[in-house]
Amino acid sequence: MSSTQKTYRVAILGATGLVGRTMLDILEERRFPVSDIVPLASARSAGREISFKGRTYIMQEPSKEVFADVDIALFSAGSGASREWASVAASQGAVVIDNSSAFRMDPDVPLVVPEVNPGAIFREDGRPAMIIANPNCSTIQMVVVLKPLHERYHIRRVIVSTYQSVTGKGKAGRDALESELAGEKQESFTHVHQIAYNAVPHIDVFQENGYTKEEMKMVNETRKIMGDDAISVSPTTVRIPVYGGHGEALNIEFDDDFDIDEVRRLLASSPGIAVQDDPSQDLYPMPLTAYEKDEVFVGRLRRDYWHPKTLNMWIVADNLRKGAATNAVQIAEQLVGRL
Amino acid sequence: MSSTQKTYRVAILGATGLVGRTMLDILEERRFPVSDIVPLASARSAGREISFKGRTYIMQEPSKEVFADVDIALFSAGSGASREWASVAASQGAVVIDNSSAFRMDPDVPLVVPEVNPGAIFREDGRPAMIIANPNCSTIQMVVVLKPLHERYHIRRVIVSTYQSVTGKGKAGRDALESELAGEKQESFTHVHQIAYNAVPHIDVFQENGYTKEEMKMVNETRKIMGDDAISVSPTTVRIPVYGGHGEALNIEFDDDFDIDEVRRLLASSPGIAVQDDPSQDLYPMPLTAYEKDEVFVGRLRRDYWHPKTLNMWIVADNLRKGAATNAVQIAEQLVGRL
């Protein structure tokens, strides 16, 4: 790139959170063309310093004025803050990439995983949508893997069981596990129940249909991102005492039959995927090895011998990275040269 | 029962292991009519004392002679020990209830879960088989739940993802997790890889077909216990850092349609099952709450809205109890009055 490359003013709402801090790390790692950052946080954290690329910034509270010169605003401060500030930022000319669930199912808001549907970011006139939603972590890693398989074999049905990291609840989630493991008494359970030495089949709130909101995100967001309402996802989401990423056991039924070696090659050559599948070397994806990586790791690839045209696999991705911050920054990368 | 009730001499092979010790606890808890016990262990542990119902016993090494007056022998010392001693004990007149995988798929050996197929214990002449196999832990808890559903709706297909306790590897498995959490360096990984803060999709050894032996046990043992080779089980088994029991996410497709309230009532009234299914009270099965209990806990009961006649659920049971020791003692209870 030339030295005259355009650079962007990037706001981060929720800069003190685990995802917000990871967003800053990833902007730097991926050499995103940042002119400067505008770190935003609640009144509690405003005034504190934060460093980025060797410069020190002071955290501010969000306001209409603060978004005036912002090109791209990465939001990760929860649905309430997103509902309050997204349209304000957009009205000031900032493109908002929102990590909350506030706008994901809004038909006017694109829900984007760059490996899957990057084109959804842009309107017919070539301009980007002013609010772009970043999907739920469990959904992102799944659709990265489903996309090439759907194009080749056409997916009919997915049954998924998740093994989700405590960092899905941010720093509070991580701290809860640590203090529980240290034997400290918890007044309230961040993960609904104690998570140390436990597995809790309850992420986000229960809906009337018996599924949790986390589960219904996997059902609905997958259809929207894949652009195919015929794909059915039947999920069970479970929190377990790990940090490094979310695991998912997937059983995928296709319309067309497949060859397992072709599946392996197809996935290995698809963007954002790293195949780790050598049982003879005890190699398969794990949260410990996916930690701080950007890929979706795929392994345990094997035919479901008990049902036709059906595949079993196990995938893991770092939920703070590809499941949140990396995906948001990858969306921002699509905007480079288009703003 | 009258004071003249017949009592039995019960040998425990592997009395120092987690399952062996739990067997002793459960014999006592359930007031099994024991005259005395014969605790057996390897040369390393022989000579050590063990207490049972207030009496002290000396551990012995197994030998032909030691089985001479034994009525029932509970084996839990691994497949090698079972292969070496089961036929010896049987030839001495002891009925062997074997917790290893050595004889499970032997067509001459019944594989028994008392809630499912108690009749398989006995031959046509009314005498019990001299070797009776106790199934794999993951299989036992699943078939307890599948049995009443199969009778009512006829099961076609089960997709199962497991969340398995470290105690599946006995004391070594528990100690590995504790020392890893304490930050102690492990020379060898009991769970193939570090298990603290991890999820390892690898239990027992890999087979040529890409499934692990643990997974194939769920496939094959389920058919044998249920007495129906048409039931297909498609499994992914995963070790996670919990103690209290194994979790399983089940997706079950039936031939006949069901009513979800009827399913709940059917399970609640079936032996060995405790329904814990009240999302409004954050009530569902968990390893922490299943610990040291004998039931299979069932919850998260909900229709798979994306596939006809299909049910999702989440079950947990203490793998050392119903998954091993309790089931073995329940088999022994079937023998009372029949030896």
TrEMBL record, chains A, B:
Q: In which pathway does it act?
A: Amino-acid biosynthesis; L-lysine biosynthesis via DAP pathway; (S)-tetrahydrodipicolinate from L-aspartate: step 2/4; Amino-acid biosynthesis; L-methionine biosynthesis via de novo pathway; L-homoserine from L-aspartate: step 2/3; Amino-acid biosynthesis; L-threonine biosynthesis; L-threonine from L-aspartate: step 2/5
For whether the record's keyword set contains NADP, the answer is yes
Q: Which reaction does it catalyse?
A: L-aspartate 4-semialdehyde + phosphate + NADP(+) = 4-phospho-L-aspartate + NADPH + H(+)
Active site, per annotation? C137, H246
Give the Semialdehyde dehydrogenase NAD-binding domain ranges: 9-124
Enzyme Commission code(s) on record:
1.2.1.11
Alphabetized UniProt keyword annotations: Amino-acid biosynthesis, Diaminopimelate biosynthesis, Lysine biosynthesis, Methionine biosynthesis, NADP, Oxidoreductase, Threonine biosynthesis
Under the heading SMART domains, the entry gives:
Semialdhyde_dh
Q: Which residues bind substrate?
A: Q164, R239
SUPFAM superfamilies assigned: Glyceraldehyde-3-phosphate dehydrogenase-like, C-terminal domain, NAD(P)-binding Rossmann-fold domains
Q: Its domain of life?
A: Bacteria
Q: Which residues are involved in binding phosphate?
A: R104
Q: Which residues bind NADP(+)?
A: T16, G17, L18, V19, R44, S45, N319
Q: What class of enzyme is it?
A: oxidoreductase
Q: Which family does it belong to?
A: Belongs to the aspartate-semialdehyde dehydrogenase family.
Report the protein's function: Catalyzes the NADPH-dependent formation of L-aspartate-semialdehyde (L-ASA) by the reductive dephosphorylation of L-aspartyl-4-phosphate.
The entry's protein name is Aspartate-semialdehyde dehydrogenase
To which species is this protein native? Prosthecochloris ethylica
The coding gene here is: asd
